[in-house]
Predict the structure.
Amino acid sequence: MTINKSFTKGLEATIEQLKVDKVYKRLNHLDSPQAARVKMEGRGEILILSSNNYLGLCDERSVIEAGIDGLRRFGAGTASVRFICGTFTIHRELEEALARFVGAEASLTFVSAWNANEGFTATIAQEGDFIVSDALNHASIIDSMRLAKAISKCTTAVFKHSDMDDLRAKLAEAKGAKRRIIWTDGIFSMEGAIAKLPDILQIARETDSIVAVDDSHSTGVLGKMGRGTAEHFGVLGEVDVITSTLGKALGGAAGGFVAGSDAVADYMTQRSRPQLFSNALPPTVAASALAAVRFVEQHPERVETLRQNALYFRNAITEAGFKPLAGETPIIPIIVGETAAAIQMSDMLLENGVFVTGFGFPVVPQGQARVRCQISASHTRDDLDEAVRAFKKVGGKLGII
């Protein structure tokens, strides 16, 4: 076999540079389900504050058993795309439950939330359309807009983060567009901030625009019943399109969905290339996700526990001398400055039994590297107190507090 050696050497050189820049970090291998504490290969049991398992459903018995039952009933996979013979009854049950949960008429599932965002934007955009995105939107939205622009020759723009005046200005510049689409995250994953959804909806009404919200970090998190950003603001059913994930609060396995009107779901079914040309969501994943949705509907107290845990940790870490970004979500970022400092703090916390990831450029802007804490309903107060003690110890050594 002949391989291109210069190509391989080029990749190796890039990896070495990433190591020097301290962007690259060896992956930590877990040897247990995601929970408040995990078994980490070579380290024993570690307290985890770096997981999207917001409601603690990754190891919830009813969710696990539903997945096992789905595996037995439907098999290991679909072996086909949706429109041939890859749509199973469990897919339709899940999509009906997801639509009901987020306040929409219908939904369509994908193998990932990335695919859902990519599929929606690239499918819905047409020549003459204008799409505007919050500056801090997730990478999947950014790439979906690039793809849509390349395919449909629509025009795109970015408005300053949560700046409604700038959003209005961008929409005014595109007043001649055939359609205007406003894209925003519900919760911005690196900030923990919540989109100004009521303001965005009002602007959309004034400008006859379409609103699309990626609720991946909001589903199961915001609102009294965990139904997302719209429920949080009392506007359930008023958002044109909601995309979200099954890979975070809803069991943490995999998959995503697009929810909206019947027409949106039907159009996506007929035209969305990621679902037309990819195998459907594995039935076992669909079954566990359906069980997760039903669990949240039956146990809203789990959502309240998450909310109280996040408030407790935010207050405790602030009293310890740190200055987390303001907010009210389970994402609590602590800004430390440069990338090297964030990685060093993360490494030292791991040595003290707490796994929390440091993020630097290019994931976040230069000079705003951070350690991002993510709180779960599965954390006990003892867990959170232990984490704060570790932060105080490491923060003191690094001169951060």
User: Anything to note?
Assistant: The domain at 24-53+300-398 is CATH 3.90.1150.10 (Aspartate Aminotransferase, domain 1). The two ends are 57 Å apart (CA to CA).
